Amino acid sequence: MTRPQRRARRRLVGALLALGLLGGAQARTVKIISADTLELRQVDGQELVIIAGENVELRVDEDVVRAKRVEFNRTRRTLTLVGAASYRSAKDAQDLRGENLVVELGQEQVTGEDVLISDAALEIRGAEVERIPGQLRATGGYFTTCARCGRTPNDYAFRAERLIVYPGDRLVAYNAQVLLADIPVFFLPVLVLPLNDKERQPRLEIGRDATDGYTAEADLPFSIGSSTLGTTLLRYYQNRSPSLGAGVALRSVAPLPFVDRATLYTLANPRPVGQSGYDLDLDFSVRGRVPLVTATRDLDYTFTVNQRDIGRAADDPARGVTNVTFGAKAEYPLFSAEFNYVGRFGPEPTTALDSPLKTPEIIIDPKVYTNGGFSADFRVSAGRYTGRRNFFSRNAPGEGPNTTTSRLEESHTLAYTAQPWRDADLSLSNSFTGRYYGNGARTVDLKLSAQLTQRFNTTNTLTLRSEYNRLEGTSPFAFDALYGRSLTAPVSLSVNTVPVKDVTFGVSYTRDLFKKPEEQGPLGLTLGVSRVPLNLSASASVNLYTKELDSLNFSATLSDPNSGTVTVTPAQPATATTPARPAVTTRSSRWPAPGLALSASGGYTKAGGLSPLTVTATVTGSDRTNTFSVSAAHNIRTPDINSVAVTYNLTSTRDSVLNSLRLSGRETLLPPTGQISGDATLTWRGQYELKTAHSLFLQRPAGATDNGPITFSVGTVGGAATNWNVTYGGPYDLVRGDWTRPTLSANFATTRPGQTLRLGATANVPGLDQPRLELTRAELDAAWNAERVALAGRALYTRTRVGTFPDDKPLDTLTLDPLRFSLGLGRAGQPPGAYVTAGLRQTFTWLDGVRQNPQPLSPVLGLTIDRCCWALQAEADLGQRRFRVAVGLPGQTAYPLFDLERERVNVPLLPTLP
Q: Are 745 and 726 a contacting pair, CB within 8 Å?
């Protein structure tokens, strides 16, 4: 057999085997990527498939299996990887390498001997290892977080008789030795190493409060068996009675049959000073599945109990309230069933409930029935509810803000679609929701509709639609209330045609059979023209009862930039079947000005009359980079010119490379207010630009000292690595002919790899109402990074004045936020192993040259020892007299060892303590 034939055979056999494994592995897809031989055996009544080769590779869903020999037991649904093999778990990002690995396809479990397990944070070796979803177990294990560093020996490691790993949570080792540089240092009977979950880290915090006196909080993690993780919560308050509080937080995965997950949080905390007893917080939840014989999927259920008293006031209506929720849902071939219970135990509610109580509720939802173009969907629910009272209902039982009664709800949707004849579409629908209450109330929401659409010549359509909508009844509850009563039967007719090429016309009208003639809606008309050079869109509505125009809107454009282009169709000589054709010259339209575009828009409403008419003329140059546009808005009712605007973009084409110029800007005049505003920009070579902007009132407003701002600026175009600009301007007085309070500002910024510098300054310049020349703002922001040294800082200086001229005094402020210095320590040619840092955040203030806050400098000093598998950080804030030390492990930014302040001491437990 040739090599291509063998390869084709392996692919075919691999595909057939993948199908066989899929059926026997409880829907886990197995694919053979590469193999050399395939053998089928029957041993002791069990069917075995032997897959062998130099490099056997299988895919189990997203997991990757590599070995030289794989034995698949179809009866037990297991894969045995004979000899050295590897298993890559995509879900947990873990690699397992070892001898004689056994993969349980049904339970997603892996066992083996002399196995090496590695992921992004840990490397574990064990004589015997077992992996199940959410857990790793090993005997005779060795584990470390330093293996990824490549250093020999590892900084620290652990050797244990038995260990359990909960990925992303913690590692628990029994009879463990702590190794430093692979040398045994001391022995611990139990070792708990937190991984990533910050909420489950051990913690000890000691403090002092003015009311409670000395306080202490301790969170101590523990584990029960192999499925339950928990934390003991201990609290102490010196001045409370009693002083001690305790609780527990735990979560368990599959602790019992039919239970997938259970969580519990409870804390009995002493009440505040002046009260006695305990406040209780309780959160308990269970989620699981129960198999049913005839169901298409397992019954899913959830059960929760919660109570929150800690932190509530003594008169809080939610104190002592326990909320209980239970839900279960089952799927069957013909329907789904759901049971819900939402209860509340404790004091009766004195305020309206945000969500209703269900004691209980049952929902039956049959599957959607379809037959051809017909479909039916039904849903029924029944239950007893307690919820916010609907005060618009006269028969809501009980008193107070809430009411209780039973309710039966039935809803269905029926739909039918068909094509009764050629080019016709018919659709019918019936939607109904009815609610019936134990006190005799009911609500009905009924919608019936029928629509027939007929097409003529593809582009013309006629649509007839009829509806019947009924909304009535009053609910005793606010959460499902239908406000108001509605009875409508609209019948609508719409026609959309294309009477001639490039023209569309539409007519639509709706009449409600239950409304009076004067209450009917208007007749709608639409017109569209898209024929070069005209593009027109218009719509109108006419009241047929009053025979008056309700509204009209239009928008029209005359433009054809291609009208100057002549298209020549060459002559064609005569043939045996066609006569000769002369050459033909054509244009896209007869528009006389290809560079001119005219547009107009306006409208009318019966209530507001004519809306302003806006006319715009735009001239475009031959290269289409130069444009000049003028627009005017005319108020026809006044009549006044509301606004006149000019926009322009001009580009020099004489030398577009070495000396390119571009001028762009806009000007807008508002005659009613006498305001003119605009801006202009002159750009040279795409790098430098000169700008001006203004917003002026031609007549100075009463009480104002200026007519508005005028500014000029010169600089580089923004976005460059190095840019600068200088700006001068401010409020301007047209009467006196000068600036009143001008300013001069300059900014510079440059960025290079590892270097950043930003400078800015603003100064007041003498003007009509400003006598002094002085610096009012200066800012420096810089950063410089070398191989082992980094400097960064931001300094801001501002000046304001207190009092009135000439007796006013300067108030100067200098803010350093922050100044940073960092120095890396280590051997040459290697990454730094430690960093020394210093930072300063402080504000200095002077009034008339006298410092107002004579405080000493308050730097923050830091030391960081950085290793790839751990880091130690120490910080000293000399100003606040605060000292902190923290250690970082893989998956954690920093875990505090102690935090010392003037009135507080925080000493969390070391991560390596049990």
A: yes
- The pLDDT tens digits for 614-649 are 999 999 987 777 899 999 999 988 888 999 999 999
Structure tokens, 442: 């009911």
How sure is the predictor about 133, in pLDDT bands with cuts at 50, 70 and 90?
low
Q: Could you say which DSSP state residue 315 is in?
A: T
The pLDDT assigned to 107 comes to 60
588 DSSP 8-state letter: S
Pairing mode, strands 78-89 and 613-620: unpaired
For residues 153, 157, 163, 169, the Cα torsion angle rounded to the nearest 10 degrees is: -120
- Residue 402 and residue 388 in contact, taking contact as beta carbons nearer than 8 Å: yes
Q: How confident is the model at residue 566 (pLDDT cuts 50, 70, 90)?
A: confident
Does 333 sit behind a cis peptide bond, omega within 30 degrees of 0 on the bond before it?
Answer: no
CB 479 within 8 A of CB 356: yes
- What band does 653 get if pLDDT is binned at 50, 70 and 90? low
Instruction: Of 760, 693, 762, give the one whose Cα is nearest residue 732.
Output: 693
> Which of the 8 DSSP states describes residue 611?
P
Between CA 606 and CA 42 the distance in angstroms is 90
> Which residue from 265, 378, 388, 188 is spatially nearest to 914, judged by alpha carbons?
188
The model's pLDDT over 569-613, given as tens digits with 9 standing for 90+, comes to 888 888 888 888 888 888 888 888 888 999 999 999 998 899 999
| Other CB atoms within 10 A of residue 528 CB | 15
Lowest-confidence region among 354-363, 654-663, 842-851, 886-895: 886-895
Cα torsion 292, 295, 300, 303: sign? negative
Distance CA 801, CA 820 (A): 31
Q: What is the per-residue pLDDT across 268-293, written as a single tens digit (0 to 9) for each?
A: 999 999 888 999 999 999 999 999 98
Retrieve residue 872's tokens. Answer: 């130690």
Is the Cβ–Cβ distance between 729 and 711 less than 8 Å? yes
Q: Which residue has the tokens 């880091």?
A: 871
DSSP string, 111-179: EEEEEEEE-SS-EEEEEEEEEETTEEEEEEEEEES-GGG--SS-SEEEEEEEEEEETTTEEEEEEEEEE
Q: Give the pLDDT score at 156.
A: 79
Which residues make beta-bridge pairs with 288?
A: 301
The radius of gyration of the chain from alpha carbons, rounded to an integer in Å, stands at: 41
Cα dihedral 864, 865, 870, 874, rounded to 10, equals -40
Check residue 803 and give its pLDDT: 85
Closest CA to 291 of 256, 331, 340, 333: 331
Is residue 910 scored above 70 in pLDDT?
Answer: no
pLDDT, averaged across the chain: 85
- pLDDT attached to residue 726: 97
- Burial, 850: exposed, middle or buried (Cβ in 10 Å; 0-12, 13-18, 19+)? exposed
Q: Across the chain, which distance is largest between two alpha carbons, in Å?
A: 116
pLDDT 10s digits, 305-350:
999 999 898 888 889 999 999 999 999 999 999 999 999 999 989 8
Give the Cα separation of 143 and 126 in Å (integer): 9
Answer for the pair 732, 710: CB distance below 8 angstroms, yes or no. Answer: yes
> 668: closest CA among 689, 648, 688?
648
Residue 553 is inside which H or E element, if any? Answer: strand 548-558
CA atoms of 298 and 87, how far apart (whole Å): 30
Residue 784 makes CB contacts below 8 A (sequence gap 6+) with 754, 755, 756, 790, 791, 792
Nearest to 882 by CA among 909, 857, 903, 854: 903
Unique residue bearing structure tokens 């857990």: 135
- Per-residue burial over 669-706, b if 16 or more Cβ lie within 10 Å, else e, is bbeeeebbbbeebbbeeeeebebbbbebbeebeeeeeb
